[in-house]
Design goal:
Blueprint: E1 2-5, H1 14-27, E2 32-36, H2 42-48, H3 59-68, H4 70-74, E3 81-82, E4 88-91, H5 96-106, H6 112-120, E5 126-130, H7 137-145, E6 148-153, H8 157-176, E7 182-188, H9 196-207, H10 221-229, H11 233-236, H12 241-255
Parallel strand pairs: 1-5, 1-6, 2-4, 2-5, 6-7
Antiparallel strand pairs: 3-4
Length: 257
């Protein structure tokens, strides 16, 4: 299973969701890999606590091998970091990805990530991909490489309008590059159950026939606290309500497998 967490809109919690779902997966015994494709490297920091030169070159090293071509390109493989959490592994991101992007686009290397993940799927039972908040080379590569797509969504009118465009772009990509990509659904994040507007917006999306997952993630300061100490919620506060929502979301997605 290769799941990409994607939305072009920033601030919807892609990195938090990808990391916490991967951590739940690993805690339940699945050999799990998280691939960070965002030059901001938020997932990398969340899972390792590392910044700057201390961060392994990760996926940037893979793409540099690809650009080098020859024997190095054919055998290209990124360094994989074993995190301090059992069964959870990471291919880290660095700011260098931003410089590599135009070079990779010019060389038309859009399918290289898919080939890598097909190989890594033999070693890891679950692979999660965290993407940048833009439909760029790395995001398109992830959508081509994945077999499932999870779309984080926060309940405001800007997110709703952006969602229609995003779904149309994914549909076009499915037709052109990855017919096997399944959109698992729109996942409501930072949900406020006592507010009327979020539920009204969810009801509107359901009425339009858009896939909204039944498990919603609440807004909680506990998430920011887990970011601060670089420990996913399942290890930081396993009994917290938000943690249990992540567990429920993971179980729901696994049940659809």
């Amino acid at each position: 299973m290769r799941r990409v967490v994607f939305n072009q809109k920033g601030g919807v919690g892609k990195s938090s969701i990808a990391c916490n779902l991967a951590a739940v997966s690993a805690s339940q015994g699945y050999r799990t890999l998280l691939l960070d494709l965002d030059a901001q490297a938020n997932s990398t920091h969340y899972l390792t606590g590392l910044t700057g030169d201390a961060v392994p070159t990760g996926i940037a090293d893979f793409f540099k091998q690809i650009l080098a071509g020859g024997a190095a390109g054919k055998k290209a493989r990124p360094p994989i970091t074993e995190t301090r959490f059992e069964n959870l592994y990471l291919i880290s991101a660095t700011a260098e990805l931003a410089d590599l992007q135009p070079k990779l686009e010019a060389k038309h290397k859009i399918n290289k990530l898919r080939k890598l993940l097909e190989t890594l799927s033999e070693e890891y039972e679950r692979i999660y991909l965290d993407t940048p908040p833009a439909l760029n080379f790395f995001t398109v590569s992830a959508l081509i490489a994945a077999d499932r797509c999870l779309i984080p969504f926060d309940c405001d009118s800007f997110s709703r309008q952006a969602l229609y465009s995003l779904l149309a772009e994914i549909e076009e990509l499915q037709e052109d590059h990855n017919e096997g990509l399944e959109v698992e659904g729109n996942m409501v994040n930072q949900f406020q159950p006592r507010a009327a507007l979020p539920q009204q917006m969810i009801d509107g999306l359901l009425t339009e026939g858009l896939p909204v997952l039944p498990v919603h993630l609440m807004s909680s300061v506990r998430m920011r606290e887990s970011h601060e100490v670089c420990i996913p919620l399942i290890h930081f506060d396993p009994r917290h309500k938000l943690t249990q929502q992540f567990v429920a979301l993971h179980e729901y997605l696994e049940g659809r497998a």
